[in-house]
Amino acid sequence: MSLGPLMLDLTGLMPTEQEKEILQHPLVGGVILFSRNYESPAQLIELTSEIHALRNPHLIIAVDHEGGRVQRFQRGFTRLPPMAAIGKLYREDAKYALQVAEQMGWLLSAELLSCGVDISFAPVLDIAHGVSGVIGDRAFHRDPEIVALLAQALMRGMRQAGMAATGKHFPGHGGVKEDSHIAKPVEKRVLADLMMADIEPFRRLIANGLAGIMPAHVVYPDVDDKPAGYSHRWLTDILRGELGFQGVIFSDDLSMDAANIGNTFTERARLALQAGCDMVLVCNDPEAACEVVEGLGEYNNPAAQLRLIRMHGKKQLELEALQKRPEWQQANKLAAGFVEQQSLELGI
After folding, report:
1. How far apart are CA 332 and CA 326, in angstroms?
2. Is the full-model pTM beyond 0.85?
3. Cα 220 to chain center, whole Å?
4. 271-314, pLDDT tens digit by residue?
5. CATH number for the 6-346 domain, one of 3.20.20.300, 3.30.420.10, 3.30.70.250, 3.30.1330.60?
6. Are 167 and 151 in contact (CB under 8 A)?
7. Residue among 181, 193, 237, 285 flagged as catalytic
8. N or C: which end of the chain has fewer CB within 10 A?
9. 137 is known as an active-site residue
10. pLDDT tens for residues 101-119?
11. Strand, coil or helix: what is 169?
12. Which one of 64, 224, 252, 253 is the catalytic residue?
């Protein structure tokens, strides 16, 4: 059975019988995990093993595990710093900051892979324009060149661990104030300005083999009146055509407020796939997930299936064995120092 175009979520620590049945549907190709699905590394390994055993090739298991305030698994995992902390370090010691970014990429990926998670939706390639609260310190820097360099280093570390990287949120979420989870952001800058700034990190990482990209649920009226994740112009003409991207395009969650363009979830999924997405995410709404599984109908995209199969993680070590290795101990100590320093700066 090939991997389908839908990525769904789970309600608890282990899949229910109904969820197992849905995950075996041909239209499903992946599972995204949240904090509610995590209790401990041992529980996570049991969960991912059960999910992987459902299908062959196995479903892609994903998580948002960037560091800072977006890290779904914490107890038992290394607490990772926000990427802005590495961006700040770059101004003080560029060479060392690049080494740190590479080590953090390796660390986050190695720990996830050791527990059966295939991909983290990272790195964030948005520019820190200073207006977006939802992006904030998730972005490396306000300088596109520095963002590209640090993100490329992080991606190198992820590759060394055996994980494919997914850059987000194309073509850039950092220049709008509104949070697309709860509002409908509109970015009024023209395409030429976006190309010179926000799109540059995507261009650079694509040239270096970026495996995945997640578009923003943001409208850019100069290019299209639809959010980027529903836009054929953005995803097919610009991202695939002009920028030459050949990897997987994952939609952001279709249950977000900005993804609601006045239609059903099935119609949203269909529009995203028609625009150029290879896999669409339907999260935090079990009824919506069932609706899309039942309503999408037959779907076959051999090119997307080939791209998706490349996102499977390459597990190297079990977590206990990983934590005994000197490179893990060094990276863990480095991350702990960043987190401690940030706590001191915030007066925690």
Report:
1. 10
2. yes
3. 21
4. 999 999 999 999 999 999 999 999 999 888 999 999 999 999 99
5. 3.20.20.300
6. yes
7. 181
8. C
9. no
10. 999 999 999 999 999 999 9
11. strand
12. 252
